Amino acid sequence: MISLQTLANRPKSTMQIHETRPSNLPLTIPTLSRRATVKRTTGETDIQVAIDLDGTGKCLVDTGLPFLDHMLHQLASHGLIDLEITAKGDLHIDGHHTNEDVGITLGQALSQALGDRKGISRFGHFIAPLDEALVQVTLDFSGRPHLSYGLEIPTPLVGTYDTQLVREFFVAIVNHSQMTLHIRQLDGINSHHIIEATFKAFARAIRMATEVDPRRAHLIPSSKGVI
Ligand SMILES: [Mn+2]
Q1: What is the largest CA-CA distance in the chain?
Q2: Distance 67 CA to ligand 1 centre (A)
Q3: Is the pLDDT score of 153 beyond 90?
């Protein structure tokens, strides 16, 4: 059996990703630039998303849907993702198109920022509590879009936000980032708490899945060699 001391004394040959960092870059800028900007304009909405997966949680979002903005702040803050989103949508009809198209554009930006998925952990999971609410999120940047949605939100509205839009948002982001996503509500009474716990768990699961695994930093994390 290998002792912990033996492991600690091993040469750190697997940490090459740090050693290949150009010396003129400050330490806060990762070797891999995992940023993307996507602009999407339709007859219904005009959306721009800028994302940096190696951010610090800076968030500047204005979608016209205040509760969605609040959730996107959770995503940035707990995912350590820098996020800038502006959306101008047909809110005179309702929030449906804007909510969905923010999900689509964010999914596209996430996919672009990840590129060929080389070096990432790929899988992520988290269980987040928010007071009485408890939500489990499990995801895989598999290249195969799938959503299992297990939330039972007890009220039709949170503030002015239609709670049916939560599922629509995740459908959009799953399809356009090609992610497998399972959301399970383990507990919860309050609608705001249930949705916010979901976004917190989603953020932490994304953070886990997008972290670079130094043991295979230059490899695509699939036995097939491609995602
Ligand atoms: Mn809140």
Answers
A1: 67
A2: 8
A3: yes
The answer on pLDDT for 177 being more than 90 is yes
Q: Which residue has the higher pLDDT, 3 or 103?
A: 103
Give 155: exposed, middle or buried? Use CB within 10 Å, 0-12, 13-18, 19+. Answer: exposed
Can you give the pLDDT at residue 16?
38
70 alpha carbon – ligand 1 mean position (Å) = 7
Q: Does residue 14 register a pLDDT over 50?
A: no
Amino acid identity for residue 206 in this structure: I
What is the reported pLDDT for 216? 85
Q: What is the pTM assigned to this prediction? A: 0.86
Q: How far is the CA of 26 from the centre of ligand 1 (A)?
A: 35
Q: How far is the CA of 55 from the centre of ligand 1 (A)?
A: 22
Strand partners, 87: 47
